[in-house]
Amino acid sequence: MLILLVFVTLIGIVLNEAGYLEPIEGLTLRLISPLQARLATIVETSGGLFRAVRDLRDLRQRNAELEEQYAQLLIENVALKEAVQENIKLRALLNFREQHPGFQFVGGEVKARVIGRDPSNFLRYLIIDAGKAQGVEEGMSVVVPRGLVGRIQSVGSNWAKVLLITDPRSSVSVLSQTSRATGQVQGLVDGDLVMKYISQEKVINEGDIVLTSGLGGNLPKGLVVGQITAVEQQDSDLFQQATVRPTVDFDRLEKVLVIAAFEPVDVADEDQGIVPDADEP
Amino acid sequence: MSGASRYLFVALLLIVALLQATFLPQLKILGVKPELMLLSVLSWSLLRGAEEGLVWAFLGGLMLDLFSGGPLGASTLALLAVSFISGLIEPAVAHTSFLLPLVVALGGTLLYQGLFLSVVQLTRGTVLWGNSLFQVTLPSLAVNTLFMPVVFQALAWLDRKTSRPEIRW
User: In chain B, which among 68-127 make CB contacts under 8 A with chain A?
Assistant: First the structure.
């Protein structure tokens, strides 16, 4: 029996990697997702009770409030700094018509509820209750007001799986808001992020905000990814790298937005100096 | 296994998979969530032997894979292997030993996670082996061992309720 079941599983892996099992997977998830959504509601409600018990300690509650305030201020600060940067660019390019706002939702956005998470401790995915029926497609960005959550990895009729930016298999083109140094943010097993391939010529500091650069065309420009908490710089290395703390609290995500369309960054214009070092590795 | 038990077990496995994908992520201890499906499959294999354990491993693994963004078959393959090995232990021994389920939980977690990551490595590429060992596998060993007695006792009760009465002559 073991040999038979292992054989069937191996065939399944091969067929799935070749994409032949998507209809079956889609059908099954379509049948199960209403049940999962119902369970998610129960968990959401019972999760509130859990939190109520845990938050009995006043200090913790106060801490949470302060963190919330800090996040709000951080986001406001980011928006203000971005406005300053845009202003500088506009002054430099007198007749430049603003074609590159931080990001723009051309086709609108899809609100979705988180109905499940990856059962594995090694992978970081979410399952949301929006799919093809709501206009969701593979590769779309998923965000919350605090910042970037991830990208749609696979999609069914009324569900979609989101690869979080904290998954080790995720890679996002980013830039530091203050120094404009570009790099790639990748997930780590412990849920932190690492920003790699930062030019040695750039000065980056702890506390710098990291935003999506929009290069590659997969993500809108200007979404908050996180904040630099440590910098690793060695003269013998080709690049610097930095540890980035994500601004999104991935453990408490309940509702997300899927960006259905956006105006991609024009690489030609970026090369003319709007982002001076837009050299993706 | 009677027909009614069969449906009961499928429903039970579905509930376990749903719990692991919805409720347990909120219950993270040492940064990891307990692997309820792994513990259930290990327990059932100990209680009922390899044959029933393999069926649980196959169905439970498929359900986990459906809810996962990882490669389909990764959990199934890993669960089949651990179920087969733990099912080789004589059920009579498992019923009487308190320590055995804990030892099986330790070994099962190591083997399960190792095989799971190997499939991810083969199909998706990037696996940070060192970080995975220290930040996920080691905490998981502690957390799964902690939860094993609870899961094992619950399934031992289910085993008694669903076993066919022995006819003694």
Answer: 68-77, 80, 84, 113, 116-117, 119-120, 123-127
Contact B77 A9 (CB under 8 A): yes
Chain segment A116-174, per-residue pLDDT in tens? 888 888 889 989 888 888 888 888 888 887 889 999 998 988 889 999 999 988 999 99
Give CA–CA dist B54/B41, Å, rounded: 8
**Is A45 part of the contact surface with chain B (CB cutoff 8 Å)?**
no
User: In the block, which residue shows the tokens 């202003």?
Assistant: A87
Dist CA B116 CA B135 (whole Å)? 16
- What would the 3-class secondary structure string for chain A be? CHHHHHHHHHHHHHHHHCCCCHHHHHHHHHHHHHHHHHHHHHHHHHHHHHHHHHCCCHHHHHHHHHHHHHHHHHHHHHHHHHHHHHHHHHHHCCCCCCCCCCCCECCCEEEEEEEEECCCCCCCEEEECCCHHHCCCCCCEEEECCEEEEEEEEECCCCEEEEECCCCCCEEEEEECCCCCEEEEEECCCCCEEEEEEECCCCCCCCCEEEECCCCCCCCCCCEEEEEEEEECCCCCCEEEEEEEECCCHHHCCEEEEECCECCCCHHHHHHHHCCCCCCC
ipTM summary value: 0.85
